Amino acid sequence: MGVDVAAELRRLEEERSTGVLCAGDGAFHLADGAITAADCLRTTNLDLLVVAAGVATTEELRRAAAGDPHGVLTRPRLETLALLSVFDAAYFLLATPVVPEFRPAPPHWLASVCHIPPRVLLHECARRGDPEAEPWPADLVDRAPVVPVRRVRRRRVALTGGQTEVIAAADGRRSVAGIARDLGRTSYGALVAVRELTAAGLIEPPDLVPVPAGWSPPIAHAATAVAVTEPRQFLPRRVRQPVSAPAPGPAPDSWEPVDRDLLIRLRAALEELA
């Protein structure tokens, strides 16, 4: 966890500061020392979460950001999604060693419904576990393609709904963050699913996957008040016997929902393993 960022959040909480704390490829928005919003280029933007959940439209969110949030602030699920977005961004921002920079600014439009004491946020991020956990540490969330295994050991594999969505979206091109955005889920949730699927032998560990020729991390969504860093290339941590990866191809403009035939084939394959 980035001590500098955590220490600065604690200081801003004590001083009841209002403004934006830029931290690498993301930012925390504070009002009277409480965190009201957070964004990160490696996580799914709150707007995408809200639209995917059917809580508000893109136009309603545009008006809210422009200073007219009253049409969406009273919607109950907005607060839940705002909290998820903050915890999602914080998990990755706090794990990155950066020098934070604070600047005073008006409160974020979510300040009336989302206010998290930094001490609570830091405790929750610590509870979620070590961001450096192998084989999928947090810094690979947007740097390595998620590649399903070609062969699965013949044993029973029980998947949750979220794990099924993630493995169905794993195409050897998208990163964890890319899958999360296409599914309208948090990057942390997708990362946990990928870690679990890797442990189950259904996803290749990233240090076993050769990087496809011409592969680069997908361009992330725009974030507010963010100091953008250059995308880093994925480098394997250890040298092991490589396995075959799917041949690279042109990345689609957007991910389409998995069709019924694919889900039937997936189910049949899992039943065969029983």
Description:
This protein is an alpha+beta fold and 274 residues long. The protein folds into two domains: 3-127, no CATH class; 138-220 and 242-269, no CATH class. It has helices at residues 3-14, 46-52, 58-65, 70-73, 76-93, 118-127, 161-169, 176-183, 187-199, 260-273, and strands spanning 19-23, 26-31, 34-40, 101-104. A four-stranded antiparallel beta sheet has the order 3-2-1-4. Helix 8 (176-183) crosses helix 9 (187-199).
SSE layout:
Elements: H1 3-14, E1 19-23, E2 26-31, E3 34-40, H2 46-52, H3 58-65, H4 70-73, H5 76-93, E4 101-104, H6 118-127, H7 161-169, H8 176-183, H9 187-199, H10 260-273
Antiparallel strand pairs: 1-2, 1-4, 2-3
Helix pairs in contact: 7-9, 8-9
Number of helices: 10
**Strand content of the residues, in percent?**
5-15%
Helix content: 25-40%
Supply the helix-strand structural class: alpha+beta
Count of individual beta strands: 4
Radius of gyration: 20 Å
Sheet with the most strands, sense and barrel status:
4 strands, antiparallel
Span of the ends, CA to CA:
40 Å
